[in-house]
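Reproducibility note. Readers wishing to regenerate the assembly model reported in the main text can use the exact inputs given here. Chain order matters: entities are listed in the order in which they were concatenated for prediction.
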Amino acid sequence: MKEIPTPDAHQELREAVRALCRRFDSAYWQQVDEARGYPEAFVGALTQAGWLAALIPQEYGGSGLGLAEASVVMEEINLSGGNAGSCHGQMYNMGTLLRHGSKEQKRKYLPGIAGGKLRLQSMAVTEPTTGTDTTQLKTTAVKKGDRYVVNGQKVWISRIQHSDLMILLARTTPLAEVKRKSEGMSVFIVDLHQALANGMTVRPIPNMVNHETNEVFFDHLEVPAENLIGEEGQGFRYILDGLNAERTLIAAECMGDAYWFIDKARRYAGERVVFGRPIGRNQGVQFPIADAYIETEAANLMRFKACAMFDAGQPCGAEANMAKYLAAKASWEAANVCLQTHGGFGFAHEYDVERKFRETRLYQVAPISTNLIYSYVAEHLLGLPRSF
Ligand SMILES: Cc1cc2nc3c(=O)[nH]c(=O)nc-3n(C[C@H](O)[C@H](O)[C@H](O)COP(=O)(O)OP(=O)(O)OC[C@H]3O[C@@H](n4cnc5c(N)ncnc54)[C@H](O)[C@@H]3O)c2cc1C
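Running the prediction on these inputs yields the following structure tokens for the assembly.
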């Protein structure tokens, strides 16, 4: 039977990540999901092996790999039946610090992150009253001497309970006082342990997937001025800069999911005998699996195109967005086909299909919803009028 995914230039890297992932089998992920727990042992092993420091330059203790390689790490986790959503934040959050942080900030945090002593798993952007309309966010950070005082609220902030540091976007100049609405926001690195004792509270949001995500409230939280990343007022641009990596890495996770669903579906279709023959002999069963495979292979091309452009330092907003769109669509279609192929058994926890079905659905909504990608393509690539 054909290998899924097809062997590529990253085979050695894939084998190494697979070897680690094999230690965390289906029973492990089922147990974590049922307990609504955090895959601490898995994330610990991944960190110790250095994979979560793939994008950190060697001078700070990381492996200095490209986005293509980092994306293969994420893909392999999902392809193994696991869920990289428990730890993918560190891969892309760290980019904000790396690109816009001062030398002192990089020296202070990056070696600790690379060595596994510190986790930078969280990024706080989304707010309950403004959602996707980020420039309208209401959380403020007001400078008072050598501190910024933060007040406001965030929602859907992931992995905060399993992180030491968080990237925070807050408004430092009121909207009415800036020329462009994208100006006047700033990015801070927040020490979560200090913050929890000094004005930040966290309320978990029970949700459809086993994803540790929270409401966060800031009540006069003081953040040292030295924790401002880059220039005051330029934070929105810094966050946007990081989104191409985020979208491409998520696309790779979707690829891992899609290939997992296709492999699972084709195996089951070959084994399950009904009406005296394998169900996979029926074209009504095999065609949807073939269709999902074609869509997945096509999406994978865009994912690697986005990686190559990112790694070459070229602008890749369009490719990163389109890769995320195509990959999330392909994985969701593959999930649906896999569930259908399994019939009733697809609903049983022991097959893992229903768990990964829930997990992969998230990527049509977060970190950016499908409509917002359509709108990006319509306006920025096709020159259609702005809709908002
Ligand atoms: C499990 C989970 C984890 C998350 N983790 C994080 C995190 O760690 N940090 C963080 O900052 N955020 C996080 N998010 C938030 C996520 O990025 C947002 O949910 C997502 O960007 C959509 O925003 P919203 O939920 O406010 O939807 P809204 O902005 O309220 O939009 C709702 C729907 O309307 C559509 N819509 C809105 N405006 C338009 C328009 N003009 N044209 C067409 N359609 C439109 C959207 O596409 C969407 O489908 C997470 C979300 C989830 C569910």
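We highlight two features of this model. The first strand starts at residue 122 and ends at 124. The two ends are 49 Å apart (CA to CA).
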